[in-house]
Amino acid sequence: MFDLEKAIAEWRQQMLAAGIKTPVPLAELESHLRDEIALQMKSGTNASLAFEIAVQQIGMANMLKDEFEKVDATKVTRTLKQYRAIMVACLGMESLFWATCLLLKVGRFSEITAAQQMSGLAAVAVMILLAGIGLFGHGPANLGRRVRDLICISRGRLLGLLWVWFFCYVTEPVGFLFILPRFDGGPLWIMLPPAGVLFGFIGGLEKAALKKTAMAAS
Amino acid sequence: MIRKELVAASAEPLILSLLAKGESYGYAIIQEVKARSGGKLQWTDGMLYPVLHRMEHRGLIKSRWAESETGRKRKYYSLKKDGKTAMAKHQEQWSLVHGVLSGLRKERYV
After folding, report:
1. What does the pLDDT look like over A121-179, one tens digit per residue?
2. Do A64 and B53 count as a contact with CB atoms less than 8 A apart?
3. Which of B49, B54, B76 to mutate to test the interface with A (most CBs of A within 10 A)?
4. A83: part of which helix (H) or strand (E)?
5. For a Cys-Cys bond, which of A34, A167, A185, B75 suits A119, CB 3.0-4.6 Å?
6. How far apart are CA A143 and CA A152, in angstroms?
7. Are B52 and A67 a contacting pair, CB within 8 Å?
8. Which residues of A touch B45 (CB under 8 A)?
9. pTM, 2 dp
10. A75 to chain B: which residues are within 8 Å by CB?
11. Distance CA B81, CA B31 (A)
């Protein structure tokens, strides 16, 4: 005797084995399957045949999986665009911050000469350049996931530390902790280009990883 | 039967136009398209869902799970503001294509 619930459970297993995710979209596909079975049975078809017709109409598991993967690829591409926009915005804010400090001679920059001012602005420009190369160039996509994760985690902490250090250096709220001379151009050249490299390298790394995922899914 | 390329290209405008009438779910959308096209416009049923999901990710439609009259859960889709704009664009473009084709046909047979 044909057991409809058992047949649906087996169909679910086939879908799961093919890689259709649960609860969505599998629950949605099952709802569709049950609607079609109900319609077929209402018109007099027996349960077994109604099930077969419904399964045939809904399509092969592998074919469906491919289509859903394309949807995932669209999501990754969208994330990639958002991610790049965030990175560019962060870089823009950081550059603007340093350029403003230098041009308006804020905090430790209060006594800088015109040459030191130019030198500081050049350091900011180098940071933008280095970050841009990484963000818009080709990143090392073939690194292992664990290595990527490790680098990405350290990115946040290192950038955070850099920000705190520089903020304190410029505004001097706890100046006694930083036994540094007043600005002579050196500190920015020591810190900003490496920050640019870090920004660009990590940005490029994540961008390449996202691209790789998108390509694998398309 | 209509060619699959045309079926694929018409999926989004048809879904948007159907949802403009009100909230609906996958199975009902397929049934309505079948009925309105006299069975000539047929999708592989399961293929509708990736299209719906893609449209949802693009912000054209939104969805919610609700209980149906049979007590089972169903995912209902409805149009968002961007969806309405996209629908208007689609209708404009399809009308243009239809207008060009009609014009050419008239010239040929007059």
Report:
1. 888 888 888 888 777 765 555 556 666 666 666 666 666 776 666 666 665 554 444 44
2. no
3. B49
4. helix A61-104
5. A185
6. 12
7. no
8. 32, 36, 57-59
9. 0.62
10. 57
11. 25
Q: Find how far residue A168's CA is from the centre of its chain.
A: 30
Closest Cβ–Cβ partner in A25, A35, A58 for B53: A25
Closest among A90, A46, A114 to A202, alpha carbons compared:
A90
| Averaged confidence pLDDT in chain B | 90
Q: Under DSSP, is residue B97 helix (H, G, I), strand (E, B) or coil?
A: helix
With beta carbons less than 8 A apart as the criterion, state whether A84 and A135 touch: yes
Cβ contact, residue pair B49, A38, below 8 Å: no
Q: Which DSSP symbol is given to A183?
A: P
Picking from B24, B32, B44 by the largest number of A CB atoms within 10 A of its own CB, the best residue to mutate is B44
- A210 touches A145 (CB < 8 A): no
Token pair in block for residue A44: 């007099």
pLDDT, tens only, B28-63: 999 999 999 988 887 888 889 999 998 998 899 999
For the record, the structure tokens of B91 come out as 């209708």
